[in-house]
Amino acid sequence: MLPKSFKPLLWSYKFTLINPKRDKKRIIINTINYGRWEHWQWLIKNYGEKEVKKIIKETPQTEFRPQSLKLICLLLKIKKLKYASRSDYIKSKNRQCKS
User: In this predicted structure, what is the pLDDT of residue 52?
Assistant: First the structure.
């Protein structure tokens, strides 16, 4: 179960339906973008530093707020990120849906 303190970070989702295992990627992205230090600590404690780093590296930079991404990369010693322009990312998602 996700702590209630995460509810404001996931405002556009029905909080009671969020599953920490199934929705891990969305939780990590939103927490990095909008969370506080306590939220980030929860991510590391519950998903592990290795898994959080993996999600960050696999997610296009455009999904993150620049200031938050810089800080989390410094803290987790991430040197290389996936780059995709927003339009490329959207196009690739549309192609996947049509297949």
Answer: 95
pLDDT digits (tens, 9 = 90+) for 41-52: 999 999 999 999
* Cα 58 from Cα 62, distance rounded (Å): 12
Range of the domain at 64: 4-98
Residues in contact with 65: Cβ distance below 8 Å, sequence separation at least 6, in sequence order: 32, 33, 34
Please give the angle made by the CA atoms of 57, 62 and 66, to the nearest 5 degrees: 90
pTM exceeds 0.85, yes or no = no
Rounded Cα–Cα distance for residues 54 and 52 (Å): 5
Long-range CB pairs of 10-15 (<8 Å, 24+ gap) are none
What is d(CA 88, CA 60) in angstroms, rounded to the nearest whole number? Answer: 10
Task: Look at the chain and report how many structural domains it folds into.
Answer: 1
